Amino acid sequence: MEKLKKKAISLEAFICLGLLVGSCIATANIMGPVNMINTIMGTAHDLLINTVFFIMGVAVLAGALSEILSEFGVISLINKLLYFVIYPLYRLPGASALAIVTTYISDNPAVLSLAANKEFRKYFKNYQFTALTNLGTSFGMGFIVSAFMVAQGGLMKVNLFKAVLIGNLGAIVGSIVSVNLMIYYSKKYFKSIGESEEEKEIEKFVLDTREVRGGTVFGRFLEAMLEGGKVGVEMGIAIIPGVIIICTTVLMLTNSMPEGGYTGAAYEGIGVLPIIGEKLNFILRPLFGFTSPQAIAFPITAL
Known about the structure:
This protein is mainly α. It folds into two domains: 53-238, no CATH class; 242-303, no CATH class. Helices cover 74% and strands 0% of the residues. The protein contains 16 helices and no strands. The protein has helices at 11-31, 33-71, 74-90, 97-105, 110-115, 118-121, 126-129, 132-139, 142-155, 161-193, 197-206, 217-238, 240-254, 272-279, 281-288, 297-302. The longest helix has 39 residues, at 33-71. 28% of the residues are buried.
C-alpha cells in the first residue's frame, strides 16, 4: 500500500512507547528482567532451529516437486483432468488440486512454493490466485495430524477414526466456504481495478501450451529440482520474522511459571491467555471443543 506522511512526532509515538515499556515492565515484574530476556532469546532460537528450519525443509521439497511436475507437464495434465471436479466446488482451475495434495501431505508453506512456480501460476486469474492461501491453509498438515490422532487412538485403546474422518470432512467443507468467500471479495476488488487485455490473452494461450527448459531430460530434471528447491529456501527465510516474533509472544503469554520457579529457559511465560481463555470458555468450547484454557493459543497463533 502507498505510504503516507505524518508529523515527525505525534500521539501514536507516545502510545507505542507506553505500550512497549508497560508490557516489558509488567512481564519483567512477574518473571524477573534477566529471566524474561533469556526466555525471549531462548524461545526465539528454539523456534528458529526446530520450527522454521523444519518448515523450510518442507518448502524446499515442495518447491522441487512442483517445479518437476511443471517441467514435465503433470500440472497441465492435472488441470485438464480435474477441472470439472474442482471448478464447481472452488471456482478454481483443476491445477489447484495439486495445492490440496501437497499441503495435505506436508504443511501450509507448500502452497507458497507452488504459487511461486510461473507455469502453475498461469492457470489462475488474479482473483483466483489470491484464494490459494485459503485452499492451502485449509488442508495444511492434514495427513500428519490425521495419522497422529489415529495412532493416539490406538495407544488409548479408543477408535478415533470416525473423529478423524469428521475432521477431514470439516476441512473440506471449511475450505469450500473459505475459498469461495475469498474469491467473491477478490473478484470484486480486481473488477474495480480492471484486468489488462494482455493478461487475458496470455491466459488463453497457456491453456494449450507450456514452457520447458532446453537440454536433455536428465538435465531438465536436475535443473527443475534445484531451481524449485531454491524457491523453497527463499520462502523459508521469508517466514522467519512472522514465526519467531508472533510465536514467541503467544507462547510467553500462554505458558505459565514452571514448578521450580522461573529459570530463563525457553517456553516459560506469564500465563495471561489461559486466564482470558477461561473467561471465553463459553464461546471456545462450543466452537472448537476445547477443554483446556491453554488451547486458546492455537487459534491466536493461526490468526
